[in-house]
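Sat 14:20. Reprocessing the chain from the morning session after the first attempt stalled halfway. Input below, unchanged.
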Amino acid sequence: MKYRLLLPISLFLIAFMMAPSAFGQDSRDGKAWEELFFQANQHYREGNYQEAIAGYNQLLRMGHDSSLIQYNLGNAWFRLNQVGHAILAYERACIAMPRNADLNYNLAQAKDQVVDAIPPARGFFSMAFFWLPSVSPGELFWCFAIFNMLLWTALLIRMFYRSEWLFYSLLMILCLWALTGLSLGMKWVQVHDDHRAVILTKEVAVLAGPHEGDTVLFKLHEGAIVEQERSEDGWRLIRLPDRKRGWLPEKDLELISLGSGN
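Finished this time. Tokens:
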């Protein structure tokens, strides 16, 4: 019996001794992240925008993909008159903070400098769920979680107490639960299946095929937002709302959604 207890006690002591080192590592990583973010912000305040961009990109490569970092990155690119990169960062920041007044103002200022006036495509679902661009996935998740909790609470109460007001309350909660659940699903698809891409070069020729010598169909300029259909051997087939299509080198554009793939 004494020897049977030895193994779990030993495992507990090992885990207990390793825990402080794990917490210490997390603390060191957090401190390094804060220092790097502070340094990047300091570079930005001093007008060293290239150094600030390098710092923000390093944070993104480390996995700290926050809307605030994307917003600051967009500001730094905009200061360097790199409109395409600025719009790309602003659009990524809009996913998590779509109603931020400063962000929307800066994004509008950047888009005003785009040569190509391409209206955003609006389909049936974007018009039916018109409120989706104004809310973040996190906000919709918490709304759905709250209505889910209220729904099950109301169902539980109705098992023991029946009244007319409770019945109508349950119907209202059920409708809101279904609406927020559907909105959350649509938002998830909108973010993770987003094939919009931003043109990053000053001017690029859109070709009839994925080859350098193909016919030039039209030209696009920095900051234009297009729909990417597919990629092939270093080329990407893009589409405009007016149904124009053509091929671009993949180095000339970048997808807004980091989770949509190539």
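Confidence is low (pLDDT under 50) at residues 1-27.
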